[in-house]
Known about the structure:
By secondary structure, the chain is of the alpha/beta class. The strands form 6 sheets. An 8-stranded mixed barrel has the order 24-25-27-28-29-30-31-32, surrounded by 4 helices. Ligand C2E is lined by residues 575, 591-592, 603-605, 608, 624, 648-650, 680, 710-711, 734, 767-770, 787-789, 794.
Amino acid sequence: MTNFRILIVEDERIIAMDLQLQLQALGYIVCGVVASGHPAIEKAIQQRPDLVLMDIHLEGAMDGVEAAREIHRRLRVPIIFLSAYAEDATLLRAESALPYGYLVKPVSPRELHATLQMAMVRFGIQRDSDEQVERFCKAMEASQLEVWEWHVEIDQMNVFSLNEETLLSPSSVLSETIRHFLQQIDPRDEPAVAQAIEHTSQGGGSFNVSFRLRADAPADTRWMEAHGKRFDDGERGGRLIGVMQDVTERRRTEEKLRQAVTVFESTAEGIAILDAERRVISVNPAFSQLTGYPAEETLAWPDIDTLYQTPHSAPFLAQLRQGEPQTWQGNANYLHKNGAALCIWESISIVPGADGVIGNYVLVFSDISSVLAVQEQLDFLAKHDPLTNLCNRRMLHDHLEYELAQATRHHSMMAVLLIDLDHFKTINDSLGHGLGDQVLAIVARRLQSCMRASDTVARLGGDEFCIAFGDIDTLSDVDQVAQKLLAQLAEPVVLEHMTCYVTGSIGIALFPTDGASVEELLRNADQAMYGAKHAGRNRYCFYAPEMQKAAEIRLQISSGLHEALEQNQLFLVYQPIVELATGRVQKAEALLRWRHPQHGDIPPSAFIPIAEECGMIGDLSEWVFDEALRSVRAWRQDLHSQFRISINVSALHFREQRNHQRWLQKLADSGVPGDALVLEITEGVLLDADYAVQEALERYHAAGIRIALDDFGTGYSALSYLKRYRLDYLKIDQSFVRQIAEDPRDLALCEAIVVMAGKLGLEVIAEGVETAAQAAILRNNHCQYVQGYLYSRPLPGEAFLKLLQKNGGIAVA
Ligand code: C2E
Ligand code: MG
Ligand code: MG
């Protein structure tokens, strides 16, 4: 009984002293004697006695039961009560402190000794058992296990949540019926759990189930795993006892792993996992499919470099190892097992191992050969014209920049040719766009066939092409190429069911003489092409600086025309047309003038062709029509009621059906009869005429409007259309009249025209009559009307009116 230390809590000093002496005599050590509750607790904490002998009635507010409870709670020291009382109420209270004994005073030393001995033995056993439970609980806590038991007969399900603080305390037990327990399980898993419990409770043995708990949202789902076994406790009946564990994290990890494995196995991208020395550890099926190497073969490689056409360099790998993040993506070339090169988009990641050193490399790649092929095709489409496969404008620009740099470096000459097909719109309109496209494709092939592979041939759009070439020694080299191109173009174009003819106009600009930049060369080649068109088409023309001047004037005129219309800079002048037989002015031709604020009067020949090019002819024609209509309405009252005004109509304007409709409407609205107007058209209108032109002529005729064929003899003069179309006057061009007195051939032509017109029921107006001799000859030849400076220059409206009023409508020659 050595070193057994006892704390005595007794408020009666004598009894306390007696006890102390007794205990010491029995060989115990008394480590303290106190008389009241709080000092007893303090002393116990301080001394850590092996046992406390506790009186129930103490000094102060706290009695022995309370002090004992506190000491037991804090130190789990065994307590034996010593009391003079043993009535039921005291005993009942004393029980709550879980004492190891209850002695009623006075106590004999033998009784005291025996009780202490028993308490010590029991306490030893209790302590071992507590330690075991504690160990067990800690283990359960560490493994996050809960203990459950189900009393089958009484249907009570207890779940114990174990942790150090609530070691099997009643508050940590959840009791419920099995049905209630099962209700908390996800309906998908509940039947399996119920069946396992049922099966085990009836047949014995053990079970093991996983299940989900009911959750409000899928993301909150928790997975549990339960093990259980049936135990039979005789009269107490059967029990199922087991453990339960929250395995959500494990399930999630497993799930992720399963997904990763599926991705690895089924992805279309090749994956290889390498060790730190870049030896293959594993490859996926896509790897083998893309590279042709079975997995076993790759495992035998010294490292992954075997796969590459050009392996990554050592410095690259070193850089990758130090990089942050340690991932690289880019193009690489692999070698297929069959020797073919593979264009690859590759990603290399480093998986860090322990201590931050490299654990693995992960290689992910996809075969981008087909993507590259599509990209190449897109590149081609972006730089080429889909119809002809020639370079497009963008590509031409790049080529020209390059060629120009070359030519500059080598001090050599370079030529830029712009080719525009002549009258291609007519071909397109008459054959349709499908055949028009075929013609363009044939033309493109022909142009290309004339050039070397290193020369640039491009289609700029529509019927416009551009050719550039260098290595030029003399200008005659360029001449030869241009002639060859024109000759090739002029060859008949044979289509499916027909043959057509195309010509082209070529403008040429040379480096370095005609420009130092791509833009300048293209612009000047365009000027030159314009020159070729004006010189009569189907020819080539070298750029000359004057063209630039002309182009500037053209630009000024086209932009000035808008202002001219808005600011009333336009006006009409009228030139009398004289009836030869009577000398009377029966008609006048309205001629357009532009009084430019800076440049003075600009003749129509200078701006009408430009208005036609820049799309302003419609507005001009409309203005002229309105103005002329106003004049003729007034003059029909002032001069005579049969007076007529001739208006010149542009061929472009005439081709638009809507224009005729509008003019006829305006005429009707004005109340002026149709026979007050003569429309002067040129042979060009009839040359390209189709059904629409014929219909327009018919409608004008029906409205009483006369049609004059202007400048007769200067165009194509296909006489068949004189018969085909309904015309009223032929105007002999002044170029025939000018020499009529001197040149018998001109005279003969004029005579012939008058005779022919007479036979066809047309009247003739001779233009540009400047001398009395010319007038006499025309009169002798029965020409009906004349117009020219001999009678009057074209005059502004008021002057014209005065002139006629002065002479009573008789022209004074
Ligand atoms: P055009 O219709 O043949 O007009 C006759 C031209 O000859 C006028 O030139 C007139 O001034 C000129 N002329 C008249 N008598 C004589 C003469 O005795 N000797 C000489 N040397 N010339 C004479 P203009 O006014 O310069 O007009 C030139 C052309 O411009 C016209 O030729 C016509 O085709 C066109 N034009 C004039 N006004 C208009 C218009 O309003 N609309 C359209 N579309 N074209 C017009
Ligand atoms: Mg005219
Ligand atoms: Mg004329």
